[in-house]
Please model this.
Amino acid sequence: MKPTERPQAFSGPLPPADFNMARYCLATNAAASPDKIALIVVQDEKAPKDAAEQWTYGQLDNAVRRIAAALLDSGLSPGDRLMIRLPNTSTYALLFFGALAAGIVPLPASSQLTSEEAGFLLEDSGARAIAIADEFDMSTGDAMRFTSDEIEKMITYARSVDYAGTRADDPGYLVYTSGTSGTPKGVLHAHRAAWGRRPMYQGWYGIREDDVVLHAGAFNWTYTLGVGLTDPWANGATTVLFTGNKDVQVWPLLLERYQATLLAAVPSLYRQILKYCDLSAVDLGRFRHGLTAGEALSPALLQGWQKVTGTNLYEALGMSECSTYVSTGPGMQNREGSPGKPQPGRAISILDVEDTSNNDPLPTGAIGLLAIHRSDPGLMLGYWNRPDEDAAVYRGDWFVGGDLARFDEDGYLWYEGRADDVMNAMGYRVSPLEVETVIATHPNVAEVGVCEIQVRSDVSIIAAFVVPADLETADVASILSHTADHLATYKQPREVVFVETLPRSPNGKLLRRQLVEAFSKASG
Model:
């Protein structure tokens, strides 16, 4: 198939009708390799290697089925929602998979949420129960409440049950979008979502059974639950997670000590590792490559990482509604500025922004709405209790989430930002991503965020917020000159503001609205 002849429906293998996500991840390996280490949890990077918490596949399988039995015996029923608000320990992961094993729908929540934010999730989800640590003070209303100690006891509960006989399309787990504007909304995934991650195995990871995956996220992050646990376990690999103080110096030490072959993190962590760590002082002999998602991978970072480590970084583009679906991976050529190609089997299309009645794919090079075919097993069941929004995001058989993109002649996708982020400069529609990509190639730019700023009631301009690599030598004129060499006049920023950091959501997405607000306050 030529790059321009993209599939019009998911073409990979579909999950069996009877499918339980926890069984898929654990049962096969527990039977075939019960003594193989599946999970290593490191609290102190300076402690001896054998002091780390370790779980074999057999132990995980036994623990989650005991937790499932305890949850069911407590009065919960399959289909009930269970909100999880626990600290960053293995108990979080065990409870998440234990709920799945029982057919109960876990709702993983970040420990960083305020009581008000967590209370909204509890109420909106209609959760029958919440697992909550004593350190988190919030009203739980009529919801059944499990303490950390009670969850710990469930791991050794007196009996266990087999994995629930769920169907592939049965509700599996519920996550909430970051809520960068308005209130967060629940995204309900089916058990088949784990199967829907299979295109990532070789389309992004190049994962093998003998891999050791070090993930830099916390247990309560869906990036960690998916890339750090679900996928390595489904492939019989080993996962290493660190729960101690996240000093950047920790990560090279962990890579060396546990002979990690893959590292999963956001680009900003790779940038910090390059800046603050002496990688020549550690043995990275088994390390094959890094995985990155959550924010765009800049060409400068990719080049820097390749030069220092001799290894690659593979980027993925995704969303809460489908996880990742476009990526680079082993055997693919990195194309700087592009997250890659649709993963094997995925049906990805670019649809017309204006003509909503036309669901035919746009030609190569045309910018339009990025769409995923509804047949993809990784796609959500729908938004929780928001039927109007469900209807709004589908155009025929295509899910359209509001992202803009285009394909080039070789099938690489180029992300052009959010449809509601597009700037109107001098009467032209300009993608902030296009401007950011150019500015990011300036030698003294570490990070950049671009947005439209209103300077008068009838005048708006493009502004660039830059985190310089070296603040002492940062120069506005140099950056403006650089953009003038690479961008049409109407695309060039009129303001450059140097900042220490860029505002980002918990999952790494740039919060452009906060940039606008910060500029407005600074200008009075």
Q: What stands out?
A: The domain at 20-37+56-166 is CATH 3.40.50.980 (Rossmann fold).
